[in-house]
Design brief:
CATH topology of the largest domain: Aldehyde Oxidoreductase, domain 4
Number of domains: 3
Radius of gyration: 27 Å
Strand order of the largest sheet: 10-11-8-18-15-16-17
Shape: globular
Structural class: alpha+beta
Number of strands: 29
Largest sheet: 7 strands, mixed
Low-confidence stretches: 1-38
Helix content: 25-40%
Strand content: 15-25%
Mean pLDDT: 93
């Protein structure tokens, strides 16, 4: 039974993950040796390890690699306990098989939510340790010695007393007859040889030399290429299309119509795109034809004072507000955001009467497989998903809308067809992070410290659609993540106003998920309270975090590395933001320069991270850097707007991302910890915007509460 059982419905998001972690810690799936056979070609002690007679040991990766370094990290966990070196192994994508490769914390074959390492830290180590013990026992039995007189090293079992040595490959025939040992002890951290060490990414060489295979690289024999146009209006449909001009283009094979899109199929991508451009398409804009950005923002503003669902209550906020007025009120507004992954959406399918092959890069393989089965009507076992490296995920590939669209097209095409979205379609038909508004009211005591905190979150419930078990009594536990703040405030109250996007506009997960919605208002709000109290923002936070030693520790490190007490030149300022989520803790300090003309330059960002036991410090540093850059793109440029029920922006000219010349110096400092590993992939993003807000205030005296940052608001001339 999945951990997302109804019996778990009455827990908070944080309790939910803690409980899930404990549940997942004891899970080791697939630990069954292969059936005994003298002709066995490989020993498969688990779903994750295959040891052949000859050649490199194979590690099967249960998570997908989308640039976050998970293949290297998981390989390190397996290799650490199996006692092999990383140059002795090769890696394979896991097939679409949720029964064997489900994330233990999510109950499905999903990569996301900064859960990959947290979910499998003990699972992978136990898989490696169990395989090692089976091989040691097999060698000891053959040598007629006690197993505890043997040891494993570098892919061999060694009996030092007699000088005998056997490779793992030479032991597989004996190993398949061994009983699977129970409760195999794991190595103590003091004995780690790989875990905690900087290791070069195993996927980097192929990405550098161009041999790495992403979804967009799939080219099965006989493949055709499809360019698509999707109805630009949310909820709109295809009314008519004249396909004669497209069919006149050399190389074009056919024009495929589905209810809300048109595809031109050709011998090559160039012909497909030329054919698409030649089409004369008439769309039915549907019910949202007159919908404007102003309409959407007005609806969100109205929701601030609408009916809300209570989430967390500690103390008596209403009483505190009466006794400790005045009430400080802040409203923070965040825009619609796109994912803008480097690799645009794509999917290649070959639909046949007897089955279907799917070549795609996806964060959610099992659901992709099921989606194709649903569209084609094929039995699930007849659908084979060939997973690939992802050219960026960020939550975009946690949805299967692109797979569904491709399957509908492929049903009408003879032979395999690759459906590739243009950048324009990718931006205009994303699964967006929708408008998110937050209203906070707080009161201060005589000492200037907060006595009450009331936080109302206004936004959609992605989990209600995507993972209903991650809701409670109508509350989306993800969007409320951390809204109660980590600070020691005696009276807290949080509630949720569910405010959805218009019909036809898909909303989904975005890097940093709930934390990116709530950290800006929490950290901006705390800074505002510190200013009202006349207390240094660093000292203010320290007073409120005595019960949070790990978060406080990260704050100490960041402040020291930033030289918080040293003065900056005129026109420069520093701002702090803290993030506690994903089982990890981060303190971020941004240094900025603001000119009198309002032009903003980010000079330096310092981030101190306590993510528990580190697997690969190089990956931690890279992930934090990546998260910061992603957050900077959103803070400076991120904004999707709507006109006549359609997205206005279409490419990087009007929906830009951070350029290398704009990227500040980024310093990442890892706080040593022996705690269980926390998530890291999303930790760097949430603190970016509020640390900039707070640094800008130091220079200009102006409080920003909306994104993206508007340079015109910073002018001082």
């Amino acid at each position: 039974m999945s951990i997302f059982d109804k019996t778990n419905a009455a827990v908070s998001r944080r309790q939910f993950l803690i409980g899930a972690s404990l549940t997942g810690a004891g899970l080791v799936i697939g630990l069954q040796p292969s059936p005994s056979s003298a002709a066995a070609e490989a020993f498969e002690p688990s779903a994750f390890i295959r040891i052949p007679v000859d050649g490199k040991i194979v590690f099967v990766m249960p998570s997908v690699e989308m640039g976050q370094g998970i293949y290297t990290a998981v390989a390190m966990l397996l290799a650490e306990e199996l006692e092999v070196t990383l140059d002795q192994v090769t890696l394979e994508h896991a097939p679409a098989d949720p029964e064997r490769y489900a994330n233990p914390l999510l109950g499905d074959q999903i990569t996301g939510g900064s859960l990959a390492i947290r979910a499998v830290y003990e699972q992978m180590r136990k898989a490696g340790a169990t395989a090692r013990m089976i091989l040691v026992n097999a060698a000891a039995r053959g040598w007629e010695v006690a197993p505890d007189t043997c040891k494993a090293e570098a892919g061999h079992v060694v009996h030092a007393a007699s000088g005998r040595r056997a490779s793992y490959g030479s032991l597989i025939h004996a190993a398949v007859s061994e009983t699977v040992p129970q409760d195999v002890p794991l190595k103590p951290a003091s004995s780690f040889s790989l875990i905690g060490q900087p290791v070069r990414r195993l996927d980097s060489p192929e990405k550098v030399n161009g041999t790495a295979k992403f979804g967009i690289d799939a080219r099965p024999e006989g493949v055709s290429y499809a360019a698509i146009a999707i109805c630009p209006h949310f909820g709109g449909k295809l009314r008519s299309v004249e396909d004669g001009p497209a069919m006149a283009v050399k190389g074009v094979k056919q024009v495929v119509r589905i209810e809300d899109a048109v595809a031109v199929v050709a011998d090559n991508t160039g012909a497909a795109r030329k054919g698409l451009a030649a089409l004369s398409i008439e769309w039915d804009p549907g019910p949202n034809a007159a919908l404007s950005q102003a309409d959407l923002e007005k609806l969100a503003e109205d929701a601030i004072n609408g009916s809300a669902l209570p989430h967390i209550q500690e103390g008596d906020v209403a009483k505190a507000e009466i006794e400790h007025g005045p009430v400080h009120e802040f409203v923070y507004r965040q825009p619609i955001l796109t994912h803008s992954a480097m690799e645009p959406m794509n999917c290649t399918l070959h639909v046949r009467s007897d089955g279907c092959d799917v070549w795609v890069g996806t964060q959610i393989m099992g659901r992709a497989r099921q989606a194709v089965a649903d569209v084609t009507g094929l039995p699930l076992p007849k659908v084979v998903v060939h997973n690939h490296l992802l050219g960026g995920g960020f939550g975009r590939r946690l949805d299967v809308d692109g797979v569904i669209l491709a399957a509908k097209i492929a049903k009408q095409v003879d032979g395999p067809v690759k459906v590739t979205w243009s950048r324009e379609e990718d931006i205009r038909h994303d699964c967006y992070r929708y408008l998110n508004y937050s209203k906070v009211t707080a009161t201060l005591g005589a000492d200037g410290m907060p006595v009450s905190w009331r936080h109302r979150v206004i936004g959609p419930s992605v989990m209600a659609r995507w993972l209903p078990a991650f809701t409670r009594d109508g509350i989306d536990l993800d969007i409320m993540a951390g809204a109660e703040t980590p600070y020691a405030i005696p009276n807290k109250y949080t509630d949720f106003v569910r405010h959805e996007a218009p019909d036809g506009m898909l909303t989904g997960n975005w890097r940093g998920v709930g934390a990116t919605r709530n950290i800006p208002v929490i950290e901006g709000g705390i800074d505002e309270l510190a200013h009202a109290a006349g207390v240094d923002p660093l000292e203010y936070r320290r007073r409120l975090l005595q019960h949070k030693p790990r978060l406080l520790g990260a704050l100490h490190v960041a402040a020291e590395k930033a030289g918080w007490t040293t003065a900056l030149p005129q026109g420069q300022g520093r701002g702090i933001a803290l993030t506690e989520d994903f089982g990890s803790f981060a303190a971020m300090i941004s240094e900025v320069t603001v000119g009198n003309d309002g032009m903003l330059k980010i000079d330096r960002i310092i981030c101190a991270v306590d993510c528990g036991q580190v697997i690969n410090p190089d990956t931690v540093e890279a992930q934090i850097q990546s998260g910061i850059i992603y957050g900077l793109s959103a803070a400076l440029y991120g904004r999707i707007t709507v006109h006549n029920g359609a997205v206005v922006e279409s490419n990087f000219d009007d929906s830009p991302v951070l350029r290398i010349n704009e990227t500040p110096r980024i310093e990442v400092h890892i706080v040593p910890s022996s705690e269980a590993p926390g998530g890291i992939g999303e930790l760097g993003t949430p603190g970016v915007a509020p640390s900039l807000f707070n640094a800008i205030f130091v220079v200009t005296g102006k409080r920003l509460r909306s994104l993206p940052i508007d340079h015109n608001e910073l002018r001082r001339v």
